[in-house]
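Record 1 of the preview.
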Amino acid sequence: MKLERIRLPLGLPEPVTILHVSDTHFCRADARDGQRKIDLAAIRLKYEFGRSMVALDPDEESLKIERRLDELFAYGKANCDLVIHTGDFIDFRSIPNLEAMGEKLRGADAFYTVGSHEFSLYMGEAEENTAYKMQSWEPVSAAAPNPLDFAVRIVKGVRFIGMDNSYYRFTGEQAAALDAELRAVMPTVICVHTPIFEDSLFRRRIADTKLNYTSLVAIPDRYRLHFPEDQAERLKPDAATMEMYRLIVGSPQIKAILAGHLHRFYRNTMPGGAVQICVGAGFLGEAAELTLF
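->
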């Protein structure tokens, strides 16, 4: 277990402690899913989710990922007021993956936001669009402990709002729901899977990956000029996404944004002052413990 410990002063009457986990990428499949998914699980575990890109025993690696999550969730239940998982709990949709997701999240009484991998039937098989997502919406919703699109949980006077932005966009309905929710004045933490654009985070991520693009939500046009054409289009924000961005950076009630997706710890300050925390890889036992006080 590797914890980043962060303290955020909000002027609260009593502290609120959060365990933030993301990107656990469970890889399970069995005969109910068919041989193709069994093979996919073995390949992903063998080459993607170890400490290096060397061949590993897939069964042992699956057990390691599960043990790491169990250790994190046990710590969160014992020491924190709330456990939050910001998506990509599973690596692809399968029956045992969704069973594990429901069992683990409900066992930890976790607040959950969905990631893109929850909707993946097979890795890289098709364009990830709304129609593709909706093929998996109902079974993923059934495994989740709270609504996927927009959910609210209040702990010790702090409001946590979870929203789906797994395909790099928000919807007009989500923006309207957030606007309505913010009419009740309360310190607020936004929970999403994919981090929201901010200049310093964008530049750090480009430098870290050595790529000419990076995957954030609400990237302005001028930052996407040199992206590959497919990435520039995939990451282009629509009007609803930009409206959500303006709501988030313009509200003094929003104190923090919790995200995952990048498999590496980042911390940046958004326009308007909210702190965005991108947590590391849950499949490696990485998490963040935040104390709001």
